[in-house]
Design a protein that fits this description.
The protein has about 425 residues and is an alpha/beta fold. It contains 13 helices and 17 strands. The strands form four sheets. An eight-stranded mixed sheet has the order 1-9-8-5-4-2-3-16, with helices on both faces. A four-stranded antiparallel sheet has the order 10-12-17-15. α3 crosses α7, α9 runs parallel beside α13 and α10 packs across α13. The protein is globular and about 75 Å long. It starts with 19 loop residues before the first helix and ends with a helix. It binds pyridoxal-5'-phosphate.
């Protein structure tokens, strides 16, 4: 093999700009709406709600802010308005996705909640509905669930919503990675009582930053707007009855987001082509790509893969370091990531499960056993995972054997073919 390192770095997922974005940014500048109000924000809110099939969207500084306002509102709805400094979820357990980015969980903690993590379904890499049912048996008092879609490949958010309804719990859907993906034809971001989407720089479309809270409830939208602007009351002076935040979206950033929205479908199509090229290229390797659940259409944001158990060389990870022993015919995520880096291509480990984070090591973690495990094993038979769950939980198993591949839209087919070759040679 004669592959030279890439001259320009192949990114995991960089922003893809088209030019139209600047028109709206310039409009904001020329009309002097350089603030957190303006036409761009109004338009983004309109488009975001329409695309996600929700009635209202509230433009915010980021998705984390949207999640914060969502869990705060859920907490006050469920448990009443708290003493100001205590948080709306003070001392309450909240069921949370285990395999997700930490931004899903942080807002629960901002409000004093205690995350309890729900294990991952091997067949979807998302929250396992069977484990969630079991969690409600163990903790019948829980009234809030925060669930995220991973890498733009949705799981059974529809089932999770049903389970929440059955137990009188509210659902916050973190669709930050899944904008434009669908479950049975229904948009991700439309399943939660509250949903959040992100325009962070690496997401499927971007404003450099920004996010929206989505809801069908006008009261939620109004409350979020008020809290996001320092919770000022309707009075001639600054009048305050509640704690507020500075969470509003900038009209300049909204201009970029507004320009990007018309390219959402194109971005999804290009990400899908990347996923399928990997799938085809790795046909002969002992690996599986992210699973696609029946009835779902992913947005293919990040292509990822897991290495079959018997093709794994020895790999150990401490809290902040990884080591492996190279073996002919075998490899591991660390070796592949280091090799990609040598060629100037960026991959990334799978998001490390939350229950394994030092911050949450003492928190509850509900896995599937007995009947639940049997059901999970049915998926394993489909070839998604081998021997999963025997010694590790599903999330840690995917973390151990999996990695995210360079998924940048700007990567050319020829460059991707080189990435595929590089990965293949790790198995030599
Ligand atoms: C990116 C991301 C977020 C945070 O989005 P920001 O807009 O950067 O706050 C939240 N949840 C998940 C799952 C994400 O991937």
């Amino acid at each position: 093999m004669e592959i030279k390192p890439f001259e320009n770095k192949i990114w995991l997922a960089a922003p893809t700009m088209h030019g139209d974005e600047m028109r709206y940014v310039k409009e904001a500048y020329d009309t002097n709406w350089m603030s957190t109000v303006g036409v761009n924000i109004n338009e983004v809110e309109k488009i975001a709600a329409e695309k996600a099939e929700m009635k209202y969207a509230v433009g915010l500084s980021c998705c984390t802010a949207a999640l914060h306002l969502a869990v705060k509102h859920a907490g006050e709805t469920l448990f009443g308005r708290p003493i100001v400094s205590h948080g709306a979820l003070a001392g309450k357990r909240v069921f949370c996705s285990d395999m997700t980015f930490d931004a899903t969980i942080n807002p629960v903690v901002y409000e004093g909640g205690i995350p309890v993590f729900i294990d991952t379904e091997a067949g979807s890499w998302n929250m396992d509905p069977v484990a969630l049912e079991k969690a409600f048996e163990i903790y019948p008092d829980v009234k809030l669930v925060v669930s995220a879609e991973l890498y733009g490949f949705p799981g059974r958010m529809d089932l999770i919503k049903e389970i929440c309804e059955k137990h009188g719990a509210l659902l916050v859907e973190d669709a930050a990675e899944a904008m434009g993906a669908t479950i049975n034809g229904k948009q991700c971001g439309s399943f939660g009582d509250y949903s959040a989407i992100s325009y962070n720089g690496n997401k499927i479309i971007t404003g450099s930053s920004g996010g929206c809270l989505l809801t069908n409830d006008i009261e939620v939208a109004n409350k979020a707007r008020k809290w996001a602007t320092q919770a000022r009351e309707n009075a001639p002076w600054y009048q305050h009855e509640e704690v507020g935040y500075n969470y509003r979206m900038s009209n300049v950033i909204a201009g970029i987001v507004r320009g990007q929205y018309s390219y959402l479908e194109e971005h999804i199509a290009r990400k899908k082509a990347i996923y399928e090229r990997y799938k085809e290229g790795f046909k002969s390797l002992p690996v599986q790509m992210n699973p696609i659940m029946n009835g779902t259409e992913p947005n293919y944001w990040l292509s990822a893969m897991v290495i079959d158990e018997d093709a794994m060389c020895k790999q150990v990870r401490s809290d902040c370091e990884a080591l492996y022993i190279s073996e002919p015919g075998k490899t591991c995520p660390t070796e592949i990531l280091e090799t990609l880096a040598k060629y100037n291509a960026e991959g990334r480990p799978i998001w490390k499960p939350m229950h394994a984070q030092p911050l949450y090591r003492l928190h509850g973690f509900v896995t599937c056993e007995g009947d639940g495990r049997a059901k999970t094993n049915a998926y394993i038979k489909d070839g998604t995972l081998s021997k999963a769950g025997k010694t590790l939980d599903i999330g840690m198993d995917i973390f151990h054997r999996g990695l995210c591949l360079p998924s940048d839209i700007a990567m050319t087919p020829a460059q991707q073919d080189s990435v595929i070759e590089i990965v293949k040679h790790c198995f030599d």
